[in-house]
Structures are given as C-alpha cells and as structure tokens.
Fold each of these.
Amino acid sequence: MDFKIALIKGDGIGPEIIDATVPVLEKVGKVYNHKFYFQEVLAGGCSIDKIGVPITDEALDVCRKSDAVMLGAVGGPKWDNLPGDKRPEVALFRLRGGLGLFTNIRPAILYDALRDACPLKPELADKGIDLVIIRELTGGIYFGERGRYIKDNVEVAYDTMPYSVHEIERIGRVAFEIARKRRKKLCSVDKANVLETSRLWRQVMHRLKEEYPDVEYSDMLVDNAAMQLVRAPYQFDVIVTENMFGDILSDEASIITGSIGMLPSASIGSTSFGMYEPIHGSAPDIAGRGIANPLATILSAAMMLRYSFNLEAEAQAVERAVADVLDNGYRTGDIKCENSIVVGTKEMSRLVCENIKKL
Ligand code: NAD
C-alpha cells in the first residue's frame, strides 16, 4: 500500500530523531511491501526564523492532505522571549486544533531491559508496566471560558471546565475500542465526587459500557488514580480521562517507566488521520551532537503504522526490533547502564533497521 507522511522535523534534536526514523519506515516498507512518501513541512522555531510565523496555512494544508504527520519537537531558548502567540508551541496548538485531533494516546511500557531505570521498588517493577493513557485533547479547562474580575477590591481569576455529551462520548468510544484490542480493561478517571463535568462524564461512560460488555470497566477518582499509578501500576490496561487530569497522569506514567527518550505518543481524531511525536521536547542541551535517543520517535512511527495505517503486524515488527536492540545491550547515553554498549542516534537507527523482520 502507499502512504503519504508529512514530516515536521522542528527544532533542537527534532531533525536528528526524524532523520533516524525515516530509514526505519523505509525498512518496514521494504519488508512488508509498502511505499511511504515523505513531504517535509516547516513548523516551530525554524519556521519563525525563515518565514516569521510558527506555522503557515499552507504548511497546515500539506499536513491535512497527508495520511499522517510525524513530528520531532519544536521550541528552544532562542524563541523563549517571544510573546505567547508568536512562540514555536503555537504550531502544536494549530496542528492539534486545526486537524481535529481530540484524542491523545500515550502508552507507558517498562521494557525488560530497562527495569533498572524504573524509579519504583524492584518488586513492583518486576510485575511489569504496560498501560495506555487516553487523554481528551481539545476540551475541558484548557479551552473553557476564563477571565479575571475585581470583587470587593480584590482581583479574582477563574477558569471553566465545560464538556458536552458529544465530546465525552467520542473519546469514550476511542478508549473502549483501544481496550478491546488490548487486555480489555478500561478505567475511567474523573472527580465525580466534586465536579459536575465529571458526573456527566461518568454518566456517559456508564451508558457506553453497556455497548462494550466484553470490556471490564471501572471508575476511579483522579486523586486515587495518581496514587495507584505509583502503588500498583500493573493493575492498569487502558485509562481514559479528561484533558487536565490526562496531562498530569500521563506525565506521572511516563516517569515510572524510566527515560523520557523512550516514550511515544499519538494524537488522533475521528478519522484514521493522526499526528505522531515523542513526548519529550527539543532537548536543546544535546542538539546537534548525534547522541539523542531516537527510540521514542521510532516507537511513535510504530503507533502511526497501527492507528493511522491499520498495519498491526508492521507496528509490532518495529516494537519487537526496538526491544531486541535493547535486549542485545545497545543504549543511547540517556538510558545507559552497567555493561551496556553506548551508541549514537544514527547507529541506534541502523540497529533497529537491522532487527526489523517479518513477523
Ligand atoms: P526536553 O524534553 O526537551 O528535555 C528534558 C531533558 O531530557 C533534557 O536534559 C534533554 O537532554 C533530555 N532528553 C529529552 N529528549 C531526549 C532524547 N530523545 N534523548 C536523550 N535525552 C533527551 O524538555 P525541556 O528541556 O523542558 O524543553 C526544551 C524545549 O522543548 C522547550 O523549548 C520546550 O518548550 C520544548 N518542548 C517541545 C515539545 C514538543 O515539541 N512537543 C514538548 C515539550 C517541550
């Protein structure tokens, strides 16, 4: 099959990690007989430098007309003092909003070979971590009405957290469908003991669970979920939650698996189109040195194969190749441990390519 992929290299280590991911996709194409067509799109600080804006309408249009977007990372100290609406991160908001990407999917997996990097007690790490957080991305308190006013001569600020039945239902369906393809367990996280939005959220989820009797469903309050993630992360398969809770819980889930350089993410909407990126930033401190860990981006490409192209075997082939390279002792500097063989970005990419086989 043929697929069109828009490539946003971005800033800092962005170009290095995207350049390390393209050969992996080309190898998958060769082994499984697919053709990937890549088109580069300018966004982030590099776009500000060249054209004066974080992303142009034309660039957005190229993304929209592709089957998927792969993003490195944007931003860096060079652009830190620009006003809010001119900063590189605006490109991310325009991409997510403009492309209707309302679901963020973040797996948190503890690889056997990286068990030592897990900050939890060894007996907990031994039970394994393999969960996915599904976060609503375009609603809730980050997008609700906000403002400031004066009451009794004192300044007051407020933010609101609106959610419609439609917004809850569409993210709920994505979560149930993903749970169905995994271990069939879904935990919906809310704050229904306090928030009206959460009570509506729970009501809609309970209606949906009747349609998915094969999925074991549970509710959990967000404060308990934050505790359970460090107390017994092995209990979770799929977690679904609203925007702000998901923002916080997905960062917590990332850190318990060890390195930020290992964690992929996907943002999808109501079609197969999606945007795929590592969860880390542009790492300006190591940019241009050839030492960045490309695995989070390579694993994001695996998510693209799974969620946008419906190529499950190909996605697993990439994930298996990454696990094999780690099992063979190869590490980039950020995940090195005793007796590991430290390699740079390009060599890590070459090793993953070498290990991709038809499953
Ligand atoms: P960061 O994730 O870029 O870096 C944090 C630390 O992790 C650094 O020490 C870095 O060297 C290390 N690190 C990150 N990715 C790595 C990798 N692949 N391999 C090895 N080490 C890696 O976070 P930050 O320093 O807070 O942010 C730097 C810039 O990135 C900022 O301008 C920020 O706004 C931007 N940012 C962009 C995105 C995005 O594009 N989606 C996300 C987060 C931050």
Amino acid sequence: MSTINETLIRDVVNEVLSRLTGGGSGPARRSGGGNGHVRAGNDGLFQDVDTAVAAAKAAQERLAEGGLKARAEVIQIIRDLCHQHAEEWGRIELEETKIGRLDHKIEKVHSAAQVPGLEMMTTEAVSGDHGLTVTEHAPYGVLGVITPVTHSVPTIACNAIMMIAAGNTLVINPHPSGARCAAVAVQRWTRAIREKTGLDDLLCLIEKPTLETADQIFKHRDIRMLVVTGGPGVANAAMASNKKAIVAGPGNPPVVVDDTANIEKAAEGILLGAAYDNNLLCIGEKEVFVVASVADKLLEAFGRHGGYRLNREQIETFTRLALHKDEKSGHWLPDKKFIGKDPQVLADAIGVKLPQGVICLYGEVDVHSPWLPCEQMMPFLPVMRCRCINEAIDMAVKFEHGFGHTALIWSQTVDHMTQMGKAVNTTLFIKNGACRAGLGSGGEGFGSFSIATPTGEGVTSPLTFTRVRRCEFSDWRLTDGAGSSRWKGRIHRKARILERDALAGGRANQSAVPRPRVGAR
Ligand code: NAD
C-alpha cells in the first residue's frame, strides 16, 4: 500500500472518529492537543485562504507565548521528521511531480533539515557613554509562502525552520503539482508538533492550491509579508503586489572556463552540478562558455565524468523537440515532457541508447542556440566555444539575463575571477566549485532553498524573516534640557557661536540659550 493511501485512510479514520466523539462534521473541530482551542484545519491542511490565515494568526500568538523554548522544540521536530522520512518524502515527491532523481530528492530533504534555525537569531548591542542600544529581531506575524514544484517538501521544510525560528507562522500555497507530497509532510509535522508541544497550525497549507488562492494570499490583510520561490511569473506577480515581498526568482547560471582552469576538476564539477536532480536546481549550471584553446580538452573531459556528447545533428533534432518559443514573450521555454527527466528519456527522444552511468548529455552550440537563453531544467548542457576570456564573460553576462542569481568560473587567474565577478554581479558567484558549493555543500556557509535574488536579501536565513527593532536604555537625565547627546551637540554648537559673537562685540541674547553642562554625566 502506498504512503499516500495510508495517509488518506488515516485521515478518513480520524474524521470518522472525530464525528463519533462529537468533534463536529465540518473541518473545524476540537484540538487533540488538549489545550482547548479550536483547530480549523485538517492537521495543517486548509480548503480556503481565510480560514488558513485566521488559524495561522492565532497560532502565531500562541507561538509567541511559548517563547524561544517553543520555537526550539518545534524546529527540532521539523528537523527530526525530515531525517526520519527523507526516503519516503523523496519518493512520494518524485512519484507526484515526476521530475528529478530519487537519490537527490532524498538528499534534499536531509539538507533542508540542516538549514539554520534559532542559533542565528542574534541580538546586537552597542554601549557607550550615553546608554545601551539593543537591536533585536522580531517576527512579522503570518507569512504568505509560495513554493516551487522543483523542491516542494524541501522548500517548505527550509522555509518553516527559518520562519518559525524568527517567530512567524506560515500560510503556504504550494505548486499544484507538488501539493500532495507537501500535504503529507505538513500533516506529519503538525501532528507531531501538537503531540509534543500542544501548538497547532504553525504551518497552514492550502490543500488545493490555485493561482486564485495565491492571489488571495497576496492580497490578504493579515499576511504581513510574502516569501515567494519560483519562476518569472510568480516573481513578477509578487513584486507587483502591494505587500513587502522576499522573492527567490529564476536563474540561468552561466559557467566560464578559462585557459588556466584545472580542466579535469572543472569537467567533473560542472557535470555534477548540472546533473543534480536532473538539472532542476535554480543554482545549477545551465550553459558553459569555454575559452577556445581549452574547449576540446573540456569537451573530452566531460565524457570521462558521466557526460554523453551529442553531435550537431542530434542537438538540432533534440532542440526542435525540447524547446519552444513563446510567441507572446519571445522567450525560449523548455517542453514540460523533458523537464527534470533522466538523461535516457532525453536520449530516447532522438533514438540514442546511452551507456551505463551517464548523468548528463552535453554538446557544442553557437551563440544563436536557444539553449543559451533558456533555463532548461533538464540534463542537457550546452557548451559554447569563445575566442577569449572577455567574450566568455560577455556571454555569461548576456545569458544570465541580469537575474542576479548565480554564476560560476573555473580559473586559476584571480584577475579573471575579479573581472567576471564584477561583470555578472550575481547573488552567488562560485569559483572552482560545483554550484552547490555556493550553498555550503562542498563550500562554506549555510544553505537555503530560497535565494532571494530580485529583492536582494540573498541566501535567506532566519534573520531574513524578521523585523528589526531597536531598544534603547538611555542615560537621559532631567537637566536643563541638555539630556541627550544630540541636544548637547546642538547646544555646544550654539554656545560656540555665542562665545564667538560675544568676543566680537556680543550681538546675541545669551540668556535665551541654556548653558551647556560641559562634561556633565
Ligand atoms: P513556477 O514559477 O512555475 O511556480 C512557482 C510557484 O509559483 C508555484 O507555487 C506556482 O503555483 C506559483 N505561481 C506561478 N505563477 C504564478 C502567478 N502568476 N501568481 C501566483 N502564483 C504563481 O516555478 P517552478 O517550475 O515551480 O520552479 C522553477 C522555477 O523556480 C525556476 O525558474 C527556478 O529558477 C526558480 N527557483 C528559484 C529558487 C531560488 O531560490 N531563487 C529556488 C527554486 C526555484
């Protein structure tokens, strides 16, 4: 029996038991947590936005009452369940979305469990002659969260850990094609959180998400901030809304390889990055610009690291099948039937039988190829030969589209790295590493599944989801009105003018100005 069926059956049994014990027939019924409040959803699942927001709002108040201890407990539960269920959740996400690779789906659930939580909720303090200023990070309240199909459960897990660490609760509109696996995870978390802490509805998921429910979230007066992870459509919609939005938008990461690069390492790193989850990562390598003098070496080296090279005719045939021009925007878009599919599925379309162990197809293209501008999200990597490093960097800038997302370089020449870094100006700029090094895997620093690019917050952390508050312990004294340093400064200045004027013949009325208490503290 599949897990989804088990879950459905459990839900039905719970519903029947609830009715038998007088819990009510609608979605609203008494909490099993024993704390007496009315639970509006079905273990975190909601049919409409208003009910979900109301539940999340009440939950946020209860979370606040629980203090940091409650947040810590909830986060630990989310982390533990991710690790315990990574295999099951990875599998059901793959079954539902039908994109990506099982091993990487599982790994992503584990990675999501490791994003930073409460440990990042620092408080800054400044003390001096005039007092103590504490800068603390407060919750927004209820956050409206939109998640992508490419990593449904991991994005929700990552967002939830960070947002709850910051003291917020979530109303989530998942991608419709990844909504069922999201529901399984949210129900598990909700039940465990209720059992162990008595808290409910910290994550409220719209069970049947649509563009309309997303729009209702965008407009809901009790949603304080939007956090949107997805492609250009949703990124633009969020930024056009009247709410504060943190937008983790699309990418099309270019890779530059110059003539000083370690070609063997570059080939391995680029292919591993591009092949990860069949190239679904927004940070994943999408096109390569290699300097001509090392282009053949790189193209050969890919073959030793799991790549399978397509020739020009094969690329032309595959291009006609896999990419389509959107008449309205003029942009090249990938055909859904190849997004996130295994290399053999792509190869089957053009009648190629791949040997064992191929993780990614690749091939040489020219500057006019639609593969360069397109965020293909499938394991085919286009490689363009460039005359020199300048041309390679120019191409990288052009095809990154100014998204400000991710770019990579393989080089041992610091000047080239600096030149490219300045030119692309991306949120992640990775030198001599695969894309995931930019999120702490094979590099340093913490990871996240939401890289806020157009709105500029960068790799999101718990602090991203906080309001910054200042609390001042002042040394204010009841003096002659010269209590604060700003006032003291002004009066010092005025006193100096008066002194100067007095020396020059005394025009000003000195008695109108209080005398500063010089050195008074
Ligand atoms: P998508 O844009 O199709 O969908 C993302 C979410 O937005 C879904 O929940 C969808 O239902 C919703 N949505 C789409 N258009 C909408 C609109 N007009 N109004 C309201 N909601 C809307 O993207 P996807 O295919 O799920 O994910 C892949 C895209 O997301 C890629 O472009 C990838 O680069 C990007 N992405 C970015 C990050 C990041 O951290 N920057 C992370 C993951 C994915």
